[in-house]
Amino acid sequence: MPLALCASSHSPLIGLHDPAAEIVGEVHAQLAGARAFVEEFDPELVLVFAPDHYNGFLYELMPPFCVGAAATSVGDYGLPEGSLPVDRDAAYALARHALESGVDVALSESMHVDHGFVQPLLFLFGSMDKLPPLVPVFINCVAEPLGPASRARLLGEASGRAMAESGRRVLIVGSGGLSHDPPVPRMENASPEVAERITHGRNPTAEQRRIRESRTVAAAGAFSSGSTDFHDLNPEFDAFVLDAFESGDTTAFDGKSTDWFAEEGGHSAHEIRTWIAAYAALSTQGEYAMTRRYYRPVKEWFAGFAVTTAIPVTTAIPVTTAIPVTTAIPKELSAQ
Prior knowledge:
Layout: E1 3-8, H1 21-41, E2 45-50, E3 65-68, E4 71-73, E5 82-83, H2 88-100, E6 106-108, E7 111-113, H3 115-125, E8 134-139, H4 149-164, E9 170-175, H5 192-200, H6 206-224, H7 235-247, H8 258-265, H9 272-283, E10 288-298, E11 303-312, H10 319-322, E12 326-327
Parallel strand pairs: 1-9, 2-8, 2-9, 3-6, 4-7, 10-12
Antiparallel strand pairs: 1-11, 3-8, 4-5, 10-11
């Protein structure tokens, strides 16, 4: 059965610390185009590759990959809380296929997910009550040490084969990236208080969450005002990433070290691993075509913000949503 893909950046700062209105409108127009693409495809199942930001997965036990057989949104940054419509049988089938393919995955019957999962689903479906059945797959992108990016590709390939065997129309979602370096804690330089939080800090109080989130908003304000305390956005790096996926080269990152991602795109550029998995999953169906490519660096959102869609070249889809869309950002905007 056919597969289709939408991979996009996410940012919890959308609506909380926005750039100029014309930029917000431009991004939302691109997301609306992606949503129309999804509506035309009419998925029966959604496979979501996404990271976490020490809300659902902590150092108490940090797997490189985890398949959710049940999942609940923690409701960070004002997003909806509550259970997600996980297809438990499909999740178990994916986990079995990954393990049989030599990719070690954990399995959770009680996965907690944050904005990394929920925000792109809201972009594409509008509300929680409109979500089709899901299979959420967590990819660790922040808690070091991290394995080679090739492992994300192998996970994606195993997942793509499992989805193709489902007999359903499956939308593959990759959530994260591109270049960005927001103030996500790192164990190597964490204070004792922060180390305790990212190890055992599950279920913070509303006030604790509010303080954490307000600090992120304040950091975005400093960054967009010119602070050099954070790794800058890197449009050249982001173009390399997008070019690789558009060309179908899902192995382009196999030889890249974990340090390379952070040096080129900031520590949270590791979220590109979700895109690697998503495009690798799609590639199992043969040659694919990227039908939408949009990019803009948005400092107010701490994001090299991109939206892409893709389909196998053998998939019939209405031309209204299959027209390639590329937004080239002039170099003078790369500093915004």
